[in-house]
């Protein structure tokens, strides 16, 4: 595998791929600074055509192209784009995707910071065209799409998975946050907040037969000059809008503070909280116009404000149906002109939902069991046939909801793990390196460890978090390695950290017999686990064959046991000490020392035995 690592590449100019051009190849591109590039067509910095590179830990900034000023993926490319900073790139013409442009491709885009990228076209941060990328765990902020999709644009039958991202402070003509045109993405568990738009909807836009699944998101504080502060459904779009908090959005000069539906749309709204939204025109919570049909179930519409239709405004042969909902003002909160219809099904109420603030927001439900003084009327008031979402709750104490289901949005009960940052490390070629990743989970969930970009030859135990690597004599360089700790909660959450491992080059010298030797000495690794309860593994490496002695001593310096005393080949070796002395007796808890002796080299490590 080709590796491009640790370079500053700047001011390149080409038709495509001003910095790096990848065609039918899979290099590793990591830890570089890529800036000031310009292309006449696409891929200002990195251009991928039928390629699957790993693009990891780079800073990609200040680049310009017709499309994909930061990264362009096309012709079936499936790169891994992980942990990069992609900032201040621009497509000053009409081309899409200033930060990342996906055309007929399926990249994996995880854990990047995508900020201040701008385009005159679609998708300031990311644009997907006939593509199905995975977009997960990114921060997309302060990006600008003059046409549509300041944060993300999905067009031309794209089906990306957009989960667990923070999408804030972006702006566009349509959709400051996420723009879906003739596409059906999965949009789940994101924070879409404080975005702006001028012509239509600042949060999420569904246009022209778009049918996304929008679930578990916080859609809050977005501001649109015209139409749909939180969500806009337009022209035969039929999204499923499930278990979202659509709150405190603003339609500054028009209608639909929370949601606007226009022209024959038929969205399904289930278990949403639509509250505190404002429209200067009509429909503070929901606005429906031109033949739209909405079904709203298990939802709360409360505290929204508008000139007409405080909660809902209907027009031009539109219809809405409420089942098991809490709607402020009841039928008086819904404006129904001639030619429109309102269906009131079973289980609807008009009572203050008694919102209370909790660890993740201000729209939990008051519950005696969680420590409040009274129960919200929305508790246990949803459709009895509805399934209870796993790992979600309306309670401030974090206990998950149980049957019967509560109305409204359910906050996740799971809290993510915390992965301890692993210090940067420098080792020599053929030197053994090991360390143990450490992570905690506030909910005491089990944790699994992974890395998408381990160096060649390295291993990571998914359960114990033990990382091991002995770089070969051809692996000198800087390696930026991404570690991920994922819990087993619902939904599963993860924490990501990166560490730099610098491998120094080793100069070859000749021994007395004319054979090549390396100038660095042997190495004794820290035992693992440490502390340990019954047994522990001791690893060491040798530059050349020779006699080796590995001994265990107690804190007084007395010999406990020799675990190795023999001639050993060059390379990495491991031995297990089972916590017994020379006579096979179990030794007690305490501090012990492991000492490696090989020729004129000796090294000692401290070990702790806890029984």
UniProtKB/TrEMBL annotation:
Organism name: candidate division TA06 bacterium SM23_40
GO CC list: membrane
GO molecular function annotations of the record: calcium ion binding
Name of the protein described by the UniProt record: Carbohydrate-binding/sugar hydrolysis domain-containing protein
Entry keyword annotation includes tRNA-binding: no
PANTHER family, alphabetized: F-BOX ONLY PROTEIN, F-BOX ONLY PROTEIN 10
UniProt superkingdom: Bacteria
Carbohydrate-binding/sugar hydrolysis domain: residues covered: 28-173, 174-313
Gene3D superfamilies, A to Z: 2.60.40.4070, Immunoglobulins, Single-stranded right-handed beta-helix, Pectin lyase-like
Pfam families given in the database record: Beta_helix (PF13229), FlgD_ig (PF13860), He_PIG (PF05345)
């Amino acid at each position: 595998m080709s590796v491009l690592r640790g370079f500053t590449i700047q001011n390149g100019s080409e038709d495509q791929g001003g910095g790096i051009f990848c065609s039918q190849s899979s290099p590793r591109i990591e830890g570089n600074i890529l800036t000031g590039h310009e292309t006449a067509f696409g891929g200002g910095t990195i251009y991928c055509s039928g390629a699957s590179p790993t693009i990891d830990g780079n800073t990609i900034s200040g680049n310009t192209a017709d499309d994909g000023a930061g990264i362009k993926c096309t012709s079936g490319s499936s790169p891994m784009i992980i942990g990069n900073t992609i900032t201040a790139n621009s497509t000053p013409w009409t081309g899409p995707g200033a930060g990342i442009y996906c055309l007929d491709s399926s990249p994996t885009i995880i854990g990047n910071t995508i900020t201040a990228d701008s385009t005159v076209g679609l998708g300031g941060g990311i644009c997907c065209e006939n593509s199905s990328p995975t977009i997960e765990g990114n921060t997309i902020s302060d990006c600008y799409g003059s046409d549509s999709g300041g944060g993300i644009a999905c067009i031309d039958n794209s089906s990306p998975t957009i989960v667990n991202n923070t999408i804030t402070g972006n702006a566009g003509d349509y959709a400051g946050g996420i723009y879906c045109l003739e596409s059906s993405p999965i949009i789940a568990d994101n924070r879409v907040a404080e975005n702006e738009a001028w012509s239509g909807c600042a949060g999420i836009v569904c246009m022209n037969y778009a049918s996304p699944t929008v679930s578990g998101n916080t859609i809050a504080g977005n501001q649109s000059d015209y139409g749909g502060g939180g969500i806009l459904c337009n022209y035969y779009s039929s999204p499923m809008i499930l278990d979202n908090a659509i709150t405190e959005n603003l339609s500054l000069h028009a209608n639909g503070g929370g949601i606007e539906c226009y022209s024959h749309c038929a969205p399904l709204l289930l278990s949403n909280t639509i509250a505190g939204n404002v429209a200067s025109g009509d429909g503070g919570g929901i606005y429906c116009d031109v033949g739209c049909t909405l079904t709203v179930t298990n939802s709360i519409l409360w505290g929204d404000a508008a000139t007409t239709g405080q909660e809902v405004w209907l027009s031009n042969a539109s219809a809405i149906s409420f089942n098991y909902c809490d709607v402020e003002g009841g039928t008086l909160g819904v404006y129904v002109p001639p030619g429109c219809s309102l269906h009131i099904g079973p289980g609807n109420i008009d009572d203050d939902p008694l919102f209370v603030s909790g660890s993740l927001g201000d729209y939990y439900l008051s519950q005696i069991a969680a420590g409040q003084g009274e129960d919200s009327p929305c508790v246990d008031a949803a459709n009895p046939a509805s399934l209870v979402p796993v790992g979600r709750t309306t309670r401030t104490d974090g206990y998950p909801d149980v049957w019967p289901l509560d109305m409204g949005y359910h906050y996740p009960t799971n809290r993510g793990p915390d992965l301890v940052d692993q210090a940067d490390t420098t080792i020599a070629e053929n030197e053994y390196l090991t360390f143990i990743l450490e992570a905690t989970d506030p909910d005491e969930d089990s944790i699994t460890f992974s890395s998408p970009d381990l160096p060649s030859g390295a291993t990571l135990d998914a359960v114990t978090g033990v990382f091991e690597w002995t770089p070969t004599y051809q692996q000198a360089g800087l390696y930026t390695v991404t570690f991920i700790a994922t819990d087993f909660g619902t939904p599963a959450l993860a924490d990501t950290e990166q560490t730099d491992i610098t491998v120094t080059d080793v100069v070859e010298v000749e021994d007395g017999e004319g054979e090549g030797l390396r100038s660095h000495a042997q190495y004794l690794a820290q035992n693992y686990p440490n502390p340990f309860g019954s047994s522990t593994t001791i690893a060491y490496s040798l530059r050349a064959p020779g006699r080796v002695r590995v001994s265990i001593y107690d804190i007084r310096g007395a010999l406990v046991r020799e675990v190795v005393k023999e001639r050993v080949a060059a390379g990495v070796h491991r031995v297990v000490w089972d916590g017994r002395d020379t006579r096979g007796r179990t030794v007690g808890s305490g501090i012990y020392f492991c000492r490696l002796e090989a020729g004129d080299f000796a090294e000692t490590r401290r070990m702790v035995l806890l029984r």
